[in-house]
Amino acid sequence: MGVQIPLAGLPGINSSRVRLSDPQCRGAVDGENLVVRTDLTDCGTTSQATNGSDVIAFTNELIIDASSGQEVMSWPISCNFLVADWVGFEGEGLLFEIPKPSLQVEDGEHKFNFNMHVFKSEAFASPFRTSDYPISVFPSEPLYFGLFVDTSLPGYVMFAETCFATPTPDPEATPRYSIIEEGCNIDESLTVYDTTPLEFQFSIASTQFHTESMVYVHCRMIVCMEDDSGSRCAQGCIDQNSPIRNRRRRSRDGGEDRRQALMKQGPILIVHEKADDSVVLWSVIACVLGVAYPALCGLAVCFWCARRRRRAKTAADSPGGFGGNINMGFVKN
After folding, report:
1. Tell me, what's the pLDDT at 310?
2. Alpha-carbon torsion, ordered 234, 236, 240, 244, to 10 deg
3. Which end of the chain is more exposed for a tag (fewer CB within 10 A), N or C?
4. Are strands 73-82 and 55-64 parallel, antiparallel or unpaired?
């Protein structure tokens, strides 16, 4: 984890005086910023499980050592990480990461709870639970995703900037299947549903994953102030081929970098073997006929024999008819 401080916010302070709990872990100037970084187990960082052990908080302290006529200044810093669940197939030796559907992000004293779910239908009423994974779909079946943010603060909107799929939980894995890029709809099967300012619901067909047996879908969400005309949310789709796509306006409140999250859901298993419905129907009919045909033949033979006996008896009882012990079913003309 790391801390980035604009040098303009440290007037008269030498960067060598800025450190973490461990005096050996000091900051370095990177352009117009002072950056202090540490691994999660170094520089005096401590960890504690919170929120029912679903979240691990890693905490350290940013310290500015005292100089002549000044006092030591310090601020606590922390980063929260979700604990991933894993599910396996018994006897197969395969393990799949099951990401948590919620992530809490702090911006100063304010908290934003980011959520990402896969839903069972376009009603977006019943999400798949952790125990349901991995879920299986056929390539022609749609997948329904819901993104939303919980916050007690009014006047905010959420923007789905990027959504894509990869064959592993790693967002850097390849191949990468684009769904939304820079706020632009890429997947031709993408359907977006009407939602509230802090929600985004969409569906896609899994047809594009024809070469994959398993995928994870990742989405980057950004929360902006609703009345900020210079925010990333207000910009919407930025054409990747536009020569000015990198000339992004700067948000007035400047907090978008802190109010965003890259989340993922999966694994989603793509089942490529699906018989055509007509083939299944004729297969069922063939199976039924295969069982019924011998029985029908047996009934027909019995019916034929019984009819012959009745005709032979009638012939034997009539004058001039054949009698005796011979019953061949012949009738005299």
Report:
1. 57
2. -30
3. C
4. antiparallel
